[in-house]
Amino acid sequence: MTSALPPVLRALIDICGPAFARLAGPADTVAGRAARFVAGPATATALADALRLAATRGLAVRPRGAGTKLDWGTPPTGVDVLLDTGRLAGVWHHDPSAGTAEVGAGTPVHAVQAALARHGQRLAVDPPSAGATIGGMLAVNESGPLRHRYGTAADQVRHVSYVDRAGEPGSSDGRAGTRPGGVAVDGVIVSANLRLEPLPAARRWVSVAVSTPLQVHNLVEETLAQLVDPSAIEVDLPRSVPRTTEQPPGSLAVLLEGAPTSVAERADRLAAAIGDRVTISPVAPRWWGRYPFGHDDVALRIAVPIADLHAAVYALRDAAGAVVPIRGSAGLGTVHAVLPGSTPPDRVEAILDAVRGVLLARGGRAVVISAPPPTARVIDVADHHDLF
Questions:
Q1: Which residue from 102, 111, 133, 221 has the highest number of Cβ atoms inside 10 Å of its Cβ?
Q2: What SS3 class is residue 63?
Q3: SS3 for 278?
């Protein structure tokens, strides 16, 4: 009987419907903190009512899309209500001629791309989080390899509609409504009006084996000097492989897009310029567009001018006393690094301090974006809106 339910849950059921509000279960956690309730509003009005209820009762709210980045950032002290955005989904309006689309915040990015591809268009975004939603991507400005050419996820926004934490609707226009860490919304995104790009007719990845950060630096310089208009330049430097193989442990890959003839010519020209062990493929490397870390790792984000990226990576290796896996946008100087989740918190802080000392004079920065909950609660972790 509903009369036996907690008053907050009864109110959430009235707002969202009996099938879309419930007591939280074992999987409904944020950075190890268990939520009390889960609610899934289907409209902006229902979302506003839920947020107004939470504000009135002093409840801590966290929105959840696919949950791919829910544990990232500074851990919350507590979570009362998880607001699931899964029902705020769909391509609500698509104007192919204007190159725009209004998309619900809970829509998976891959679903949007599939819908747009039928019209020969795409969002110029490729967030690495599997299953990432539009709202979650924009909330932290999560950007993948295509950022090299098209800018961040926030750069694709014309405006967003949202509901603030007091339950009042709002709208934020273009770059005026964004901040370095994402779309500047103190609440929950309802939908986003996004700029679209033509779907490229051809794509080729030009890949070359690499073994050292300095080699990566030199290859990036050579790639940029060739004026091949890359859509992305990515690097993968994993932990060293056994010396029984002649293959260097890492790879630099350059994505070229456009008309088939142009792409083929640029790929051949780049391959000739960057030396031996070069491959050209219509298929991305297996590591492309994926984070190098897992849920149980300490994940670092390093951003530095590209001329100094190799210095930052060497500094990280020196501080850690070992080769640290690195992956990300070598053409922008923005990469992710991995420390074992078992690294003691004071050791993580010492490594960060050493790397930051090197980056300070170079205009760079290093932050922890996620860590196992016991570690995240006692070290300096980036704010949820300052992750990218």
A1: 133
A2: strand
A3: strand
Q: What is the distance, to the nearest Å, from the Cα of residue 388 to the centroid of all Cα atoms in its chain?
A: 7
Pairing state between β 61-64 and 37-39: unpaired
Judge whether residue 176 has pLDDT over 50. no
- Interval 250-266 mean pLDDT: 98
In angstroms, rounded to a whole number, what is the distance separating the alpha carbons of residues 158 and 287? Answer: 31
pLDDT tens, position by position, 265-317: 999 999 999 988 899 999 999 999 999 999 999 999 999 999 999 999 999 99
Residue-wise pLDDT for 117-174, tens only, equals 999 999 999 999 989 999 999 999 999 999 999 999 999 999 999 999 999 999 887 5
Separation of CA 25 from chain center: 26
Q: How many Cα atoms occupy the beta-carbon half-sphere of 343 within 13 Å?
A: 26
CB contact burial 192-211 (16+ within 10 A = b; e otherwise): bbbbbbeebeebbbbbbbbe
Question: What is the pTM assigned to this prediction?
Answer: 0.92
CA distance 41 to 373: 29
Please state, in angstroms and rounded to a whole number, the distance separating the CA atoms of residues 270 and 256. Answer: 10
- Read off the tokens for 59: 């409840």
| Rounded Cα distance, 332 and 281, in Å | 23
Residues 48, 28: contact at Cβ < 8 Å?
A: no
- On the 0-12 / 13-18 / 19+ scale of CB atoms within 10 A, 80 is middle
Cβ–Cβ under 8 Å, residues 206 and 277:
no
Q: What is the pLDDT at residue 247?
A: 58
Spatial separation of the C-alpha atoms in residues 49 and 168, rounded to whole Å? 9
